[in-house]
Amino acid sequence: MSIDRRKFLGVAAGASALVLAGKASVDALASGSGPKQGGTLANTRWAMVIDPAKCLKDKGCTACIAACDKVHNIPDFKNPKHAVKWIWKEPFKDAFPGQEDEYTTEQYKDKPFILMCNHCNNPPCVRVCPTQATFRREDGIVMMDWHRCIGCRYCMAACPYGSRSFNWLDPRPHIAHLDTDFPTRTKGVVEKCTFCEERLARGEGPACVEACEAKAMVFGNLDDPDSEVRHLLKARFSIRRNPELGTQPEIYYLV
Amino acid sequence: MRDKGLIFTGLVLFLVLITFPVWYDLAAGTTSKGPDPKLPTAEKDCVAPLEYMRTSHMDLLLSWRDQVVRQDRLTYKAFDGKTYDMRLTGTCLKCHTNKEEFCDRCHTYVGVAPYCWECHIDPALAQRSRG
């Protein structure tokens, strides 16, 4: 087969046009699959303000814990050594070590405080995770990707708040009511509070906040100066757990 | 060719023996039997064409997983312009209601054991175990 100059130029032009078109479509696909920039995530920073005085008024109420357990398929292993907790209670002296003194009022001293993952702005758990199974989202939620967790428990060692639990056993048989909308975890996976990101995506608030009849918990966006959390933090003095560690917790306790 | 008989008998015997698995399978009737997954009858359209889903559904699911968990993107625009929630139980199992007759049949046939269901819950199975 012979080919003259004119034909060769024609074929070459056609081929290079095809290559360019292919590259353009690949670029378009690549830019479409990147993580969400701007939009709603970037100007959102989720936080929670807890009013312990309101919480303590209702003695022995565990509505928030029960609500969380139910929607997240949290197992109850009975054995406290195996306990899996996303939200739990701890007396003041353990929740705020170093901030108690011998005159800490009776009102607080041994009273249970509601604790959960602090969704730190500077989360030590994220720094140590070797697989990036835990990561900080743009909206401040310290998220878990259970698909990636290899169960090394570095994050548990790094977290100064004990917010993370490890599944030493298969959790499935220990879940009272399976919610088919939410996955369970497996043996060998770490889990913790995710600020109900699956509910936020549907436009609902966290389950614990909705379950609290005393309205002791307020959830909102710190980046919005008109949000209820910002108003509360402006109006009243608040403390955070172990602020000296520099983790910048996003759970505020009103005094 | 003094040993003609011996040689040809040997050859035939050899051929029969080496092709024995084929005869055996044909006799047992397992060769032509595919996994035969049960497709839903109510819904005709999937999130991607049949051929793509057959070969690459695992890639699609992995990309859905990463987008939902890591990038906070929740909906998927299908090839036909429809949008779907990227959810295994909520979207896939809504049409493919019977996991055992759909997912498991192929996976058992090809001998793979995906671990989706160690965490994600098959609603039908949960219903059954509840009684």
Please tell me the total number of domains of chain A: 1
Proportion in β-strands of chain A = 5-15%
Report the count of strand segments of chain B.
2
- Radius of gyration of chain A using CA atoms only: 25 Å
Q: How many individual domains of chain B? A: 2
For the largest beta-sheet of chain A, the strand count, sense and barrel status come to: 4 strands, mixed
Describe this structure in words.
The complex is a heterodimer of chains A (255) and B (131). Chain A has 10 helices and 10 strands. By secondary structure, chain A is an alpha+beta fold. In chain A, strand 4 and strand 5 form a beta hairpin. Residues 29-39 of chain A have low confidence and may be disordered. Helices cover 56% and strands 5% of the residues of chain B. The model of chain B has no long low-confidence stretch (mean pLDDT 88). The relative contact order of chain B is 0.10. Chain B has 2 domains: 1-33, no CATH class; 50-130, no CATH class. Chain B is built from 6 helices and 2 strands, in the order αααββααα. Chain B is elongated.
